[in-house]
Each structure stands twice: as structure tokens, then as C-alpha cells.
Amino acid sequence: MVHNLLAGGAWAEFVNIFVGEFAWLTITLMVVGFILCIIEAAMAGFGVFGISGMVCEVAAVVINATLCKGSPIQVLILIVLITLVTLLIFLLFVRSARFGILGKTPIIQNKTAIPNNYGKEDQENLKKLIGREGIIINECRPIGKIRINDEVYEVSSKDSLIAKGEVAKIVEVDGSIIYVSKITY
Questions:
Q1: pLDDT tens for residues 15-29?
Q2: Which of 70, 23, 33 has its CA nearest to residue 54?
């Protein structure tokens, strides 16, 4: 039995999937399902295409089993075929995302979508504050706030603690972090 199935029976069952009254529907659903899975892999959205593709593939198996009066062997062959093709699509897209053309698309790039000069103007403006003095309006331990000419900045204290109302001087700017030190007269 097993020998007959492997020798000619499995091939005959495979060919029988593609003949019959509703075979066109099974084939169409499988192809549409694969295309939808490819679209999902390429566009990586909310999963609508991928889920729809999987539903089409499951529908192909169900239609083959019910309307086409497919044997359990045909259903098993369809499930294995769908699994292998879906796995192949997945592996191709993973490889393409890492090394191929898909890896050069904005969706997959390892770089940030923020422009290179983002925040540079603000950092340059903050560096102009070095040497300026202001009043601490929120106690710095070590993070607090300073008021300089009606502008409020969040700062980090170089000293251990600067109390509210004390005068502090901006001594360093590192990126967007402003460092202050207490001024003693």
C-alpha cells in the first residue's frame, strides 16, 4: 500500500487535484493566496493581505476536500504544497530584506527616517547659552529647570544640588542636555 502510494499513487493523487469540476477554483484560490502573501511580505502592512492570502489557501484545501471530493491524500498534498510554497516565499523575502533589493527600500533600511540635520539648529542655539546665567525655578537634583531671559530650559546640575531661587551658570551643552553649575558670589 505504502509502496503503491509512493510509486504512482501519490503522483496520481497530486494530478487529480488539478482535474475535475471545481479544480479551477482550487487552483485559483491557491494562486491568489500566494500572490496576497507575496504582497504582504513586500509591503509589510497590517497583515490584511497576508491574512487574506492564508484564508484563500485554507479555502482551497476545504474546497478540494468538500466540493472536489478530494481524498485525504489530496488534502495532505495540498497542505504540504501550501506550507512549502509559503515557507519558500518567506525565506526569499527574508533573504531579500537582508541582502537583496528589498533591503534597499525605506521600510527595511536600518537607518532612521529622521533627516541627518534634524535638531542641529536647536543644538547650535543651545550652545550659544554657554556662559549665560539664570535663576533655578525647579530644584536641580540633578535635573531641574532654569529661567534665562523669560525662557525656561530643562537642565542637569554638575553640582549635587541647586536649590530653587539660586543663580546658576550654563557650563556645558552636550547634544540636547544643558549642564549648569551653581554660582556663589
A1: 666 666 667 888 888
A2: 33
- Structural domain boundaries of the chain? 2-104, 120-182
Instruction: Output b/e per residue, 32-52; b: 16+ Cβ within 10 A.
Output: bbbebbbbbbbebeeeebbeb
Q: How many CB atoms lie within 10 A of CB 77?
A: 20
Task: Tell me which residue has cell 531579500.
Answer: 96
pLDDT attached to residue 109: 46
Cell of residue 134, nine digits: 539664570
Q: Which numeric CATH code is attached to 120-182?
A: 2.40.50.140
> Are 156 and 131 spatial neighbours (Cβ–Cβ below 8 Å)?
no
- Which pLDDT tens digit goes with each residue over 150-181? 888 889 988 778 889 999 999 998 877 889 99
CA–CA separation, 77 vs 163, rounded Å?
A: 76
Phi, psi of 180 (to 5 degrees): -125, 160
| Cα 50 to Cα 64, 79, 82, 88, distances in angstroms | 21, 17, 13, 15
| 68 contacts 26 by C-beta, under 8 angstroms | yes
What is residue 181's three-state secondary structure?
A: strand
